[in-house]
Specification:
Blueprint: E1 5-9, E2 17-21, E3 24-27, E4 32-35, E5 46-50, E6 68-72, H1 76-84
Parallel strand pairs: 4-6
Antiparallel strand pairs: 1-2, 3-4, 5-6
């Protein structure tokens, strides 16, 4: 069994590839994907910012692509948001 984590490979010229291994939740209002695994532990929170567009060399369009946040572990404010739903 692999551990829950967020990884990003930004080495490609045309795109960034990020993945969340584990249960996650999307907050549509803030554009945040949060890792929901209670067993996850790290020495520091993981926060990755991405712009989901397949050609990052298109500098003219990149500013118009909405940024998404990948976050682990789950922040307190996000827990409150889920409890309110």
């Amino acid at each position: 069994m692999t551990s829950s984590t967020i990884t990003c490979d930004r080495s490609h010229t045309n795109y960034d590839l990020c993945s969340i291994n584990g249960t996650c939740s999307l907050d549509q209002r803030t554009g945040t994907l949060a890792l929901m695994d209670t067993a996850f532990s790290a020495s520091a929170p993981i926060v990755e910012k991405i712009r989901p567009y397949p050609r990052k060399e298109d500098k003219w369009v990149m500013p118009t692509i909405e940024e998404l946040t990948l976050r682990a572990p789950l922040s307190v404010s996000f827990k409150r948001l889920l409890a309110a739903d």
